[in-house]
């Protein structure tokens, strides 16, 4: 006997960073707000609905946003404030379910197959969550309800802003059929182009092409595409994943040589260390064993160098010293210029596991 379909929500805050700015500063309401630092190297963090009407989008270069919308009001991002609001929203989610998978500060998947609140349906749960967000944060959220994650994510974008879209199990195939194939997860521009060569533009075209042809052309990925075209996806909602890496990085106003990066590395090490101390304060108290230095050259090549010392770095000074020393392993001409540097910590292990390993090795000394 098969299990009943899951009930999955994807909740996505509407123009989150920009909406927080408009909420907190009444003079910005109704204005095309762009959350970004000005400058040639800055990118847009968020754009209000008014700015989006001019074609401004997240991740767009700030200079392009300014050309598209000369009257835009640029506001520098305040991530501490956005994180505080995000915590409020997570608390609202937690009233209904423990199965919460955050994707970022402003969106998350929730499995509401069963709930703490005992509401009669996933739709009622989504409406209750959106109502609470509106009342308690004075912000709006859009939500998608579906039997799996990827359909719920597509649905949450359907009636934005401040919208709700419900796709019942029996509606999934009809809902997906007319969509551009690029709406499926994992289908980027390159794959779209390859599918277009086969005459595939929509999800229905993908179904028509058939499993055999897709497997012949794309192997296992072809089988996955076939499943997605019919709305088949069994990936569960996975609550907070263990931290894999903590890092901080910065893009310079002007490109710099390697020997001028030390003050920037030490400054970024401070930011990384502060975030690491927060991680250490969590119940699991995980320990980072690997130091990572990331560089991006003026011609956009990304380089990473890492070191796992015998003992994990025990202070911000140790972290910064190791990151600075990693520059010696960058084999590039002295004339190379760098536009970005980052400092990270990785190789996380649970503190109990680390203590056990330490004791075992100590026993062999």
Automatic annotation (TrEMBL):
Quaternary data: Monomer.
Source organism of this protein record: Montanilutibacter psychrotolerans
Entry protein name: DNA polymerase IV
Active site location: 107
Compartmental location: Cytoplasm
Family: Belongs to the DNA polymerase type-Y family.
Gene name tied to this protein: dinB
Cofactor binding annotation: Binds 2 magnesium ions per subunit.
A GO biological-process term: SOS response
